[in-house]
Amino acid sequence: MMLKLVHLLGVLVCSGQAALQVSISLNKVELSVGESKFFICTAIGEPVRLDWFNPQGERILPSKRMALHTEASRSRLIIYNAIIEDAGIYRCQATDAGGHTEEASVVLEIYQRLTFQDIQSPQEFRHGETAEVVCDVISSPVPVVVWYYQDKEITEEHHSRFQVLANNNLQIHQVTKADEGVYRCEASVEARGEIDFVDIAVVVNVPPVLSVLQQSFNATADYQESVTFTCLTSGSPDPLVTWHRKGQQLEPSEQYILNRLEGGRSMLTVRNIRQGDGGTYSCRATNKAGSQERELFLKVFVQPHITLLKNVTAVEGSAAMISCVAEGEPLPDISWRRASDGQTFVDGDKSQDGRFEVRGRHGKSVLTISGVRLGDLGRFDCEALSRIGGHQKSMFLDIEYIPKFLTNHTIYYSWEGNPVNISCDVMSNPPATMLWRRERFTISAEGTANTRVHSAEGKSVLEVTPMSDRDFGRYNCTARNNIGVRYQEFILAQADVPSNPYSVRLSAVSQRLATVTFMKPDSHGGVPISYYLVQYKEVGLQDWRDVRSHSIQTTVVLTGLEPNTTYEVRVAAVNGKGQGEFSHTETFQTLPIREPSPPAVHGQRGMGKAYRLGLVKQDDGGMPIVEYIVKYKTDKEEQWMTKLVPGANDFAMLQPLQWNTRYEVEITARNVKGLSEPTFYQFFMPQKPDITAESLFSGLGLGAVVGLGLGALLLLLVLVDVSCFFLRHCGLLMCITRTLCSKKTATSGKGKEIEEGKAAYLYTYNSRPTALSTTEATAEGRKWKRVAQAGYD
């Protein structure tokens, strides 16, 4: 090269002008993709311009990847980060002032080194699908790619499911979790001895598998109950479990408690279950490989609750429809009960008269009453019942009806100057307004000179004081409400005295008494009868004696009659208008005086050896009983004992009698006429009773018995105290003795004597034998008396 340059320089010198010559520092260059290279172009002569041309023959202009640095006879082309497209022949052209050009060229060969492009690790695949592990490697020439797994080359002979594709990717058919691991992609270019590899982690994702332990649950609303749903999940990666209801994902709250335990167990707890919590819940498990969802069902039982039941008002004769709406789970059965008689109606029922019918559907029941009657008024009970429980409510059926007059008493009687109340009684709903009319004229509430109106709910009273015949006649009562109007006519007629009673009869006639009975008169004169007047007198006398009946009784007893006397009797009825005519006169005769009837007797044992006979007077024969003659004897004796008892007495006391003895009694009543037939009676006296506390105190009062008991108790206490004094030197008596003795001085002679005497007594008492003779006992008693006196002195 240097020889050529010397030769050229010699030629130029000889010619007198230097000829253009161009040379490039390199003729052929190999460059790896991505590398950078520069080329120097040198021109000999007097070039005025140096240009570079790319393989496409285009003049190269400076850019980011291609830079030009040109001096007078030297130019440098820099290629940064070469790419395959940069390969080719590059020319350097020199131009002199005369426009003559010379050029030189260089061949640029670009090859691709082993390059792994965008290799991702790990690469994830879904279980069961055909996986293609991507290993994108480039080089020029094309590299040879080999795959390794677990340090062993993957060949189709040993791995039937594995295949290396034309693009150098590894295909795995029906990839499983067992295929998971690290795979090595190794590429080599034998021409250059170049080799490289990349490790790729293969992850196999398994879609979630979801199962539930229990799919259906039951609960009762409003009882603070809770239900827990459980889902078991598996998959790779571990799936995310969410709970859904009505298309919305459930979030943790006071009502919803979400828990995730080991082993893929997920739980949803629904707390304080209400009716609206029933329905379908979804458990959804999701991971990269997919998702799976299972439904769980919550059946919420709700106690029946009646939500609609209203009072109903119906018009008599029309139809009434009563609706009862209830809710609950399960839907309750609805029944009706009429409170007035307890009759019940259920769905589909129809009463015998066809007026009551029940139809129900979907928690609603309608009771239809056709041709409503006043008797239907009242309470009706609606009951909703299911196996969870029941609920009952009541309504009231009110019936509106046209006014109804309550009485058929339309004829009233009075007389001039006597006020009378004509009552118009009405039952109606709603309440009626009432008016009085007389001959087409309305009687005002204020009334007139002889009429007044008194009104109350359901009642209007017209007070009329007849002053002349014109005030008698017809009066009209009009009752009106929004259902209709009714009229009732009343007649005010002139009253008369009653007609005469009839069928006068005498019964139970005795010496002093007689009972008069009779039939009521056929007409009371329009005014109620006040009483009956019974008149009687002895035959032959002029003056009648009057007896009034008690109220309107048709039986009157005549008293104070004379025996064996003939009387006349007649009866008249008296009302407000006056006294009516007398009945026909009847005669009767009282009985003559006779002996009394035998008395009735009943007995009762008295105190001790006495017996009480009760005497009941019978017919006295017209004269008072003077006395009772009581005769009695034992059943073994012949002689009678007689006791006279005044006639006014009602008992006789027989005493003294013998124990364990049967007695016979004969009782006779006597009046001034004579004796009655005797009445016979027997009784038995029991055995003599034992003398017991009961018999001793039976005659004493309660105060005497209590006094005796207290006296006996006091005596017993005194005896016990004396015994304690002698035997144990204690007790109340000993305390008194010591108290008195302590008041004496120790040097008192009398005190010494007392002590000595007491000591002597105690010594004597204790040293004596328990059995003493009479003399000894007397002596001891005297000695004790002296000691006691000394003590009290």
UniProtKB/TrEMBL annotation:
Q: What is this protein called?
A: Neural cell adhesion molecule 2
What residue range is the signal peptide?
A: 1-18
What organism is listed for this UniProt entry? Betta splendens
One GO cellular-component annotation of the UniProt record comes to: plasma membrane
Per its UniProt entry, which superkingdom is the organism in? Eukaryota
Q: What is its main location?
A: membrane
SUPFAM superfamilies in the record = Fibronectin type III (SSF49265), Immunoglobulin (SSF48726)
**Membrane topology, record value:** Single-pass type I membrane protein
Give GO BP annotations, semicolon-separated.
Answer: cell adhesion
Biological role? May play important roles in selective fasciculation and zone-to-zone projection of the primary olfactory axons.
The keyword Repeat appears for this protein = yes
